[in-house]
Amino acid sequence: MNDLAVETDPAELGFDPQRLRRVDERMARYVDEGLLPGWLIVVTRHGRIAHVARRGHADLEAGRPVETGTRWRIFSMTKPITSVAAMMLYEEGAFDLTDPISRWLPEFAELRVYSKGSAVRPVTVPATEAIRVWHLLTHTAGLTYGFHHAHPVDALYREAGFEWTTPPGLDLAACCAKWAELPLLFQPGAEWTYSVATDVLGRLVEVVSGQSLDAFFAERILGPLGMTSTGFHVEGDEVDQLAALYVPEPGTRRAVRNDAFGELIKHKPACLSGGAGLASTAADYHRFTQFLLRRGELDGVRLLAPRTVELMTRNHLPGDADLEDFGRPLFAEMPFDGFGFGLGFSVLRDPVKARTLSSEGEYAWGGAASTAFWVDPAEDLTVLFFTQLLPSSTHPLRQRLRQLVYQALVSEKRG
């Protein structure tokens, strides 16, 4: 199911074909200047593909071009899939969003919160609030990432072996036990910071369902949605379709290969990361975005009720705040102004404040290797972007792509 092709004249879907060509022309510069190895873009409206474009290489050194069937490390685009898994269990009555996670993950029962001091001598206080399921879904649990390099608690994560990867040999349960031993960045619910919360959510899915996360995904989400090329590692003949991973060269920012990190996806991981572990194809993730846009159903398969998807894609930050007001300053490609956060997605509250052409109610997320997607219910539109450059904050790809897609959308015509 890796075939992606334009299904109709883009004009029938409201796009000006000449303006649509600007997407390819402008994004091609990143490849022509050596800043990206290659990319793939898919634009869909009213359920039909309006535009598919690709440029450059999946593997520069091998001379292998980007194809529609190329496999990409999607990193944090795994998070929405894990969030869907959790909400499927929520719909079955397995838990309430306000339940403390210690009911299933007792290691999180006695938590400490950073108060002051350095990573060498941190001063902590007892948590006054339990981590609840909705805290995990909204990144308001007080957990963090070692790669932030913004706080002494981040340094404690790195010292424990958690930066871009997890310590060798530790499974998801063991990682959760380690995270529970580290102090929280803040009292649960008090702030927003991007974190391992979705990995902990994946462990909750495992304990509640009685299945490993990969088994739950395969049986309950990926199989039913026909996402047959998505998984926690790439093996066999599929390796020939795997894109190489690149990082920016210091100074020039030209894309240079990083096999030390890139090769990890070729081996079954000890830790099934619900926050960043999957590889996928454009066709597979396209099906996932269509499932979301259709409010929980695709091709007769319903995984979530429409009301559940609507709840997930509303802003859940207290007081309808945006990330700029409620979040901590972190490296990020996307702006925090005008964006809130739902249950697994960023949510656009105010396009003017965000300085974007996108629509209020857009929900989205991206991955560390500069992959991205967004769903715009107001325009019945989905957009996918795939490349493999780590980190995603290297270039303003996501905002640039929004500019280019929306300037080409000129009509409300339906096919």
UniProtKB/TrEMBL annotation:
All residue ranges annotated as the Beta-lactamase-related domain in the record: 24-404
InterPro entries for the chain: Beta-lactam-related, Beta-lactam/transpept-like, Diverse_Enzym_Activities
UniProt name for this protein: CubicO group peptidase (Beta-lactamase class C family)
Organism encoding this protein: Prauserella shujinwangii
